């Protein structure tokens, strides 16, 4: 999976929105309901490095792999940075992104989740 494919995958998740933050952050953020689940660095020297939140039990395992490290500033919150997404197995990357998206979604209120997913109950009629 290359950068363009990963960007498209993130954007296609239900309720996903992307926002580009200019200097000094220089990141392309993906969020759901205002909760961030992934981002790309958009400036050199770290252009297109990809960061996302991972499950507590996966953090140490993943950061021990070559090309993956704790995310700068967010590592203490179990965010990792993948230096080259093309070198990471696509199916595993999709699973990690889906987990991060679901984790962000689960932090929203039930009503907000239902609105995003379109699973709300039908309105009652008298």
TrEMBL record:
Coiled coil: none annotated. SUPFAM superfamilies: YjbR-like (SSF142906). GO terms for molecular function: DNA binding. The keyword Protein biosynthesis does not apply. Pfam families: YjbR. Keywords: DNA-binding. This is MmcQ/YjbR family DNA-binding protein.
């Amino acid at each position: 999976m290359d950068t363009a494919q990963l960007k498209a995958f993130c954007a296609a998740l239900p309720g996903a929105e992307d926002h580009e933050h200019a200097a000094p952050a220089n990141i392309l953020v993906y969020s759901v309901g205002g909760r961030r689940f992934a981002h790309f660095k958009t400036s050199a020297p770290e252009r297109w490095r990809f960061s996302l939140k991972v499950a507590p039990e996966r953090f140490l395992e993943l950061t021990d792999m070559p090309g993956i490290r704790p995310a700068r500033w967010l590592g203490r919150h179990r965010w990792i940075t993948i230096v080259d997404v093309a070198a990471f197995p696509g199916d595993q990357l999709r699973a990690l992104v889906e987990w991060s998206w679901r984790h962000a979604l689960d932090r929203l209120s039930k009503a907000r989740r239902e609105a995003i997913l379109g699973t709300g109950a039908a309105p009652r009629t008298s």
